[in-house]
Structure formats: structure tokens, C-alpha cells
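Postdoc handover notes: sequence design on the structure in folder B. Input C-alpha cells:
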């Protein structure tokens, strides 16, 4: 099974209209392999999504950085999956560690949310926030970049794989069809720190995660699901990482705002 290389650019909470236009200009002018070789998806903040979509070359796609867990309604400040579909935004990033940790999105029962949402959705007795978002967004026709990854503390205590497996399990419990999911392994300690996982460290988790998918979801899903790496990827370290057999691409933060993002796209051909 050939897994098409996937490079995502997560712009996070950055940019002005002028800066966004500059980024789109260098993306549009770049020489990169064709769409059948590498899938490129950039994820600007919500407010710039339509601008970027309207200016961006047609072989690159756009992703939102989040969406609401169910149908929209009285949820001030949220953006629904329906809105993204309406705007023809094909992808959404879900479960990013910055949302899990800073905004308390988790796999676990969120009691306060549960109490509130139970009034609205009495059939949901357990609220698995990230997994529910993945399942709902998929059901609306969106494609998902689902993020998993351990903190430094968890890595140092030897629980990396247990954490990543639990995060993936919660998604597997709610999803039958994995065709529209890309899994992003993003160790929290490597995000925005300049401390990239070594190719061997990343490969080890990717290969374990693929094994986990094979044993717990299915052989076909394990061989076809792209597992991409995120955390301090740049134009220099991407090539060694891209050579690893179970690294199927990247989710890039800081470097996706700069022209070196093009080098990362081109690391599909590492030699
Ligand atoms: O969080 C990330 C991508 O989603 C990675 O961020 P950095 O590449 O800035 O470390």
C-alpha cells in the first residue's frame, strides 16, 4: 500500500492579512511535486480561511484548526463542521495538544461540559470531546488531521505508547471508516521548542502506532492510514525524518509560515 506523502502547515494563531498574502505568494510560486505525489494542506486561522482558499493554488488545500463537537447553535465563539462544509473547507485539525492542554479538550469525561451538554444532548452519557469531534466532523464529510502525542513527563515516565494508544483508542471507539483520517503524532515536548524528535524516536512511535492500528483496528487501516510527524520540523531536519518508513509526512507549525516550508514539501524525495 502506497501512502501518499502529506505535508500540513499549521499556522496556529498567527498572521495579518498582509502576512497571509505573503505566505500564499511564496506557496503559489513554489516548485513542488504534483498532487499525486504529495498532498499539501495549509491551516490558517478561521478568519483567513476564505481569503487563503480564494488565493491559493488549486493543488494545495486548506484546513481549519478546530471545529465544534456537534451541530452548531448557541455556542458563542465556536465554528461548526457545517460551516466549514458550507465554505468548502475540506480538512480540519482536531485534538491539537495546544487545545487539549491549554483549553482542556480531552479524551476523558469532562464533567462540567457533561453536565451542561447533558441538558442539550441527553443521549450522550460520556463525553469524549476530541473523539466526538472527529466522529461528528467525519459524519459531515470533513477530512481530519487527528493529533496525538505525549508530554515530556509522560515520555520520561515511560508511558509514551500508552498515552498515544489511549488517544487513538478513543477515536477508534467512535469511528468505523478511517479513509478520511490522517494521524499526526506530535510529541508535546517537541512542539515549538526546537527540540525535534530524532528520526529514530519518531519512527519508533510511528511504527508502534501502526502496529497498534493493525492489532486494534485492522490490517487494511494500519497499512493505509498516514501517520505524520509534528514538532519542530524545519527545512533541515525534514529529510532524515522523511526517510523513515513509517513517517508519511509532517504537520509543521513555525516553519510553515516561512519559505522553508517548500523544502519540507520537497522532502518527499529525501535524496
Ligand atoms: O504543533 C505543531 C504543528 O501542529 C508543531 O509546531 P512547531 O513546528 O512550531 O513545533
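Designed sequence:
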Amino acid at each position: 500500500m502506497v501512502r501518499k506523502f502529506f505535508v500540513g502547515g499549521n499556522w496556529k494563531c498567527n498572521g495579518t492579512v498582509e502576512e497571509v498574502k505573503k505566505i500564499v505568494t511564496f506557496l503559489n510560486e513554489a516548485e513542488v511535486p504534483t498532487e499525486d505525489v504529495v498532498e499539501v494542506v495549509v491551516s490558517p486561522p478561521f478568519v483567513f480561511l476564505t481569503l487563503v482558499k480564494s488565493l491559493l493554488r488549486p493543488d494545495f488545500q486548506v484546513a481549519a484548526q478546530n471545529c465544534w463537537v456537534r451541530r452548531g447553535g448557541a455556542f458563542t465563539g465556536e465554528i461548526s463542521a457545517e460551516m466549514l462544509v458550507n465554505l468548502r473547507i475540506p480538512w480540519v485539525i482536531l485534538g491539537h495538544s495546544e487545545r487539549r492542554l491549554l483549553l482542556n479538550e480531552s479524551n476523558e469525561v469532562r464533567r462540567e461540559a457533561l453536565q451542561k451538554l447533558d441538558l442539550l444532548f441527553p443521549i450522550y452519557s460520556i463525553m469524549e470531546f476530541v473523539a466526538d469531534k472527529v466522529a461528528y466532523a467525519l459524519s459531515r464529510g470533513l477530512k481530519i488531521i487527528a493529533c496525538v502525542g505525549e508530554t515530556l513527563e509522560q515520555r520520561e515516565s515511560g508511558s509514551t505508547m500508552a498515552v498515544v494508544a489511549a488517544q487513538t483508542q478513543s477515536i477508534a471507539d467512535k469511528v468505523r471508516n478511517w479513509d478520511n483520517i490522517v494521524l499526526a503524532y506530535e510529541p508535546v515536548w517537541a512542539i515549538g521548542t526546537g527540540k525535534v524528535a530524532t528520526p529514530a524516536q519518531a519512527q519508533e512511535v510511528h511504527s508502534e502506532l501502526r502496529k497498534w492500528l493493525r492489532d486494534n483496528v485492522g490490517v487494511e487501516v494500519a497499512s493505509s492510514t498516514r501517520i505524520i510527524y509534528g514538532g519542530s520540523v524545519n527545512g533541515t531536519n525534514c529529510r532524515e525524518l522523511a526517510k523513515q518508513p513509517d513517517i508519511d509526512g509532517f504537520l509543521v507549525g513555525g516553519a510553515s509560515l516561512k519559505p522553508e516550508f517548500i523544502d519540507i514539501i520537497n522532502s518527499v524525495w529525501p535524496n
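Context for whoever picks this up: The longest helix spans residues 199-216. Don't rerun without checking with the PI first.
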